């Protein structure tokens, strides 16, 4: 082996003590279920908001000095790639990046593919071909993998959608992405959580499922979340997954009460 190759390989070897104690998570839910709110409650988050709506974050303004939430709106896939390189540089103070949402970014990517002047003119500019879907799937895979490998907490949100199980033909609920992409993304991350609402006689709670149950897809590679939790925030999820390396704010109950007050 030549010295250049040997030096390159040595640079890729990392002691476990130097591996950052972070996690990558996919949260999916029906619209309006609170996945953006849950994700925003995380250590020093940068929310890459492709959906355009930030109204749900207004409830946190009284805690803005403590939560230190930053938001940016990408207009193109190139913007996302530039954001990645900015975060990879380490020249920032962010501890969590939130891609909100992959469902919308998938649409943005497809729109760019259809508008590409190099695309074959014989194809309808508004109707994707199988080749377009394949190109979009590959582009999204690369995007998710690059963000996942950042040395910080990475959270992807997604809408929930129905998918058909290729083995038994049953209908499953999972992230609303192109079928092959959805399975790949779930394989890339440490935790896949399905968020939903549960009610008793007095009030409604948000819950997250972190193990597969019935038709709902979920997983927890860490093995520390059990079936899930009530009133989930990324502070709580990351605290468990990282064995306490990610701290939960002392006034988290006050913050969650503010969230409920705005929902009522």
Task: Furnish the topology, listing elements before pairings.
Blueprint: H1 3-12, E1 24-29, H2 35-40, E2 45-49, H3 64-67, E3 70-72, H4 77-89, E4 96-100, H5 102-115, H6 130-148, E5 153-164, E6 171-175, H7 179-188, E7 191-199, E8 204-209, E9 219-220, E10 228-230, H8 234-241, H9 252-263
Parallel strand pairs: 1-5, 1-7, 2-3, 2-4, 4-5
Antiparallel strand pairs: 5-6, 7-8, 7-9, 8-10
Helix pairs in contact: 5-6, 6-7
What does this protein look like?
The structure is a single chain. With 264 residues, the chain is of the alpha/beta class. The protein has a single domain, classed as Rossmann fold, CATH 3.40.50. It is built from nine helices and ten strands. The protein has helices at 3-12, 35-40, 64-67, 77-89, 102-115, 130-148, 179-188, 234-241, 252-263, and strands spanning 24-29, 45-49, 70-72, 96-100, 153-164, 171-175, 191-199, 204-209, 219-220, 228-230. Strands 1, 2, 3, 4, 5, 6, 7, 8, 9 and 10 form a ten-stranded mixed sheet that branches. Strand 7 and strand 8 form a beta hairpin. It starts with a helix and ends with a helix. The model has no long low-confidence stretch (mean pLDDT 88).
